[in-house]
Amino acid sequence: MLGIAAAEVLIMISPFAGFFYASLQFGSLLEGLSTSPLTAWLDGFFLNHSAMTTSRLLEWHRTLGMALLALGLAGFVVSAAQVYGKKLTRRGVAKGFLYRLVRHPQYLCLAVAGWGLLTIWPRFLLLGTWVTMLFLYAGLARFEERRMAGRFGDDYLGWARGRGAFLPGSPVRRLFERIFGRLRPRAVGWATAYVVCLTLAFALGFALRAYTRASIPILSRPEQRAVVLSVWPKPESWMARVFDAALADARVRARLEATRADGPVVATILPPRYGMKGMYYTLPPGQAPDRRHGGPELGVDPDGVDEPVEVVLSRAEKAYGGRLTLEDALDVDVRLIPLAIVEVLPASGEVTGLRIPLPQNHWGPRVVMPVF
After folding, report:
1. Tell me: the pLDDT tens digits for 8-40?
2. What separation in angstroms does the CA of 97 have from each of 8, 26, 93, 111, 334?
3. Per residue in 303-313, pLDDT tens?
4. What is the set of domains in the chain, with CATH numbers?
């Protein structure tokens, strides 16, 4: 009995485990997707991850995501413990706590945890994987209900009739039946619903990305064929002053001239004590990133400390080729090739250091990472 219960738990968490793994690994898959304009956008991000915005709603999603992930995982553990506690002690159907509200709280909790993880690491590929996970759990729930009805009969059926599968009242199921329920065979309805949901999810993702981009201060410098953005929101005049100070250094100009290519330059201003530098560059062996005094992942306000910012000068390109315009520099499928890291004191404009990174981010030369 214990072995069967363990096997059922593994089956139950497999879709979420696959979703979680996709959020951390799949580097080779991401590299492959980036080589075609038809799939390269899947590598991109639909919410800000490595930069702050001027939108309170977008900044709130960071805290919300962590809370949803923790709440969902906790709810899953409690619900699973109820089910398998009943199973191991042979005490019938679990009907208490979250099971008072819905028939499958464990799957609902994993979906909530998945959404929390998605807001933390908002890659389009992960969004598609999350939608796929929901459909897999819907199928697992139907299979589980047939098995429970066969085992417990009227006791289970009477309890199940008064509860929705995943939400009270089953609004999603009613909507599915109204729109796709008449399609036959039934598998056609499911497949159509999956394609429609996937399309709507990606459309919403692109809308969120457009809103995110509009909420980030971006300075266009056509004369240098460059785009400047600050991870910590600052006025355009501030960004222009820091960028101009970096370009005023002869060594920086020589570096840009030596690495001249068709792609525009993206200058990303990282605040002091920034904790996600690997998103933008990685240094040669033996050179450790400068993390003065430690600090939060998004660093500290550059105007609140007397410490230099890092201006990461990168070349924007797309893996499948083509000449990029200045307007294309922050596209969803753009990858940034770091060229130079210039340390600048914002108050005085003094350049205090210049480092040459490897031509890649921490994850590799061909993996797309967030530009904001």
Report:
1. 444 555 666 665 565 555 667 777 888 888 999
2. 21, 37, 13, 18, 47
3. 999 999 999 99
4. 2-214 (1.20.120), 218-355 (no CATH)
Say if residues 217 and 239 touch (Cβ distance below 8 Å). yes
Instruction: Collapse the DSSP code of 276 into the 3-class scheme (helix H, G, I; strand E, B; otherwise coil) and give the result.
Output: coil
Distance CA 246, CA 255 (A): 12
CB contact at 8 A, 265 and 226 = yes
Among 170, 148, 153, 9, smallest CA distance to 102 is for 170
Q: Can you list the positions of beta strands (E) in the chain?
A: 218-221, 226-230, 265-270, 309-317, 335-344, 351-355
Instruction: Tell me how crowded residue 183 is: count the other CB atoms within 10 A of its CB.
Output: 14
- 45 contacts 124 by C-beta, under 8 angstroms: yes
Residue 94: both structure tokens together: 């679990």
Beta bridge pairs of residue 269: 230, 311
Q: How far apart are CA 318 and CA 332, in angstroms?
A: 10
CA angle 226, 228, 229 (to 5 degrees): 150
Distance of CA 238 to the CA centre of its chain: 29
Q: 283 is written with which tokens?
A: 């240094």
Residue with tokens 């210049």: 354
Beta-bridge mates of residue 355: 341
Q: Which two tokens stand for residue 71?
A: 């709440």
Q: Token pair 């139907």 is at which residue? A: 142
Q: Cα separation of 265 and 315, whole Å?
A: 5
